[in-house]
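Structure ticket #2291
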Amino acid sequence: MAERSSAAVDVADNSGDDPLAAKADKAMTDGVAEADDTAEKSADDTGSERGNSEQPTITTPELHSGHKLARRYRLEECVTRLEGFSSWRAVDEKLRRAVGVHILPADHPRARSVLAAARSAALLGDPRFVQVLDAVEENDLVYVVHEWLPDATELTTLLAAGPMEAHDAYQLVSQLSQAMAAAHREGLAHLRLTPNAVLRSSTGQYRIRGLAVNAALRGISADRPQRTDTEAIGALLYAALTHRWPYENDAYGLSGLPKGVGLIAPDQVRAGVHRGLSELAMRALVNDGATASRQELPCTTPDELAKAVAAMPRIRPPEPAFTPPPEYQRTTYQQGTYGRPTAHTGAAATQPVQAPPAPLESRTGKVLKWAVSALLIAALGLGSWQIADRLLDRDAGTKDPGNTQTTDGEKDDKPKAPVPLAIQGAEEYAPDGKPQNAADVGNTYDDDSSSYWRTKYYLDGPDLVPSIKQGVGIVYDLGAAKDISAASIALRYGGPHTTVSLYAVDSLSPSGPVESMKKIATTQASDSSAKLTMKEPVNCRYVLLWMTAMPYSPQDGVSGAGYKQGITDVKFTG
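Resolution: structure written out below.
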């Protein structure tokens, strides 16, 4: 009998369209799809411990484009067919969005472990990972459905363009180490954290796909999973800094290190590499005897690596290059020969030519001089009269206390109208790894009052701190550093106790506790809107909206009665 996973996360209400990483047609032509082992087989010298070398003699199910699973998931294009399983780009016809699907026979020796891995990954619910949406055993098939992110870019593609800037490499190792530290705290490992498994969204957020599932599909296990994932992050950082794979074999479009030389520090491979990041990569790649130049302790777990990144001085993004405006080209005119005869050579003698009189010494010139003089005299007289009239009016205004007339200078001192600041992107901020509703963050700035982002509901309240959570919030990206002077927040639920604070942060995924960030405004709302005004304009690009208390509200659709809040519209002005 068909068995459907009770732990499957079947995203429906308010999930939004959020598809999986590389587009399938590009993955097929470039060979960088998630399950493409052509490059990966030469890259498995990353210190991870592979599973059994025996390849199961399993026939991949005969499926085709147009085939429908569970009368819902329509297969569109096969991305990979390998080791008895296949991976597809598909369409969820119920939610009308693209998804990815891994399919294998129910009697495959890895079917049970794949189902268990998918169910465990689905329960994590961390937005830093590509989410498992469904895990099903049905009609002699086992299939795992996951997000498909068409607007994200594989790290393989990013690395092909050359080494990363220090700030980009810093963001990569910071976000990956924090995400994997959160996964390991829940007992989940990746074990195949390769450039194909890392995606970067258009907002700069890194997403990891295949958590636990990729390893289960290939039968990979490890005695020290935390060390394996840490070394994998170190290899990705090394590749980002040097544009070289840190092992002798070429992989993922990158050249390996020279044979017989061993592991060389990134700042010795390429000039200009950030010293701190170079040492960090060596501390993570401990399986090959790597050591940092200052002999720091090796990082053997993602949590240790994340703490080492946090202890570094923060690496700021490079300042945009200033392009001076084009220099003003003054037009020059050569003195011509107007009024002068052209000299000719010949037998005839050159006759002297009488120069014309100066323009203002002719009769017309004298008339012109008298006319200009008269105009100047008239202008001076008119100007003197206006100045005198202005002084008289000023004296009258000073003597008359009831006179409220303002001068031109006073009009210029009126406060300027606030300028709306467009929001370019946003990400939910969940430092505890337990997001509220990450898929609906875009509803908070789509200018649609009917759409919203909603928190979970809590039986205790109204304060979240300290018994429930440190808070819930969203980080907004203004696209560039802007002077922010005020913010307005439209709330879904009225009532007292909604406490909102704004913080200036350095990225869409800031690190460190909220208390360490710069608070720029705070307020407590008692109705369905909150307004925050800064004492002075604050210049920043990323703004964290952080809620620490919420009102009690009745049941609303699928959201039960409890302490909760929703955001329908956020606007910043400068």
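Closing remark: The chain has three domains: 3-147, 153-311, 420-573.
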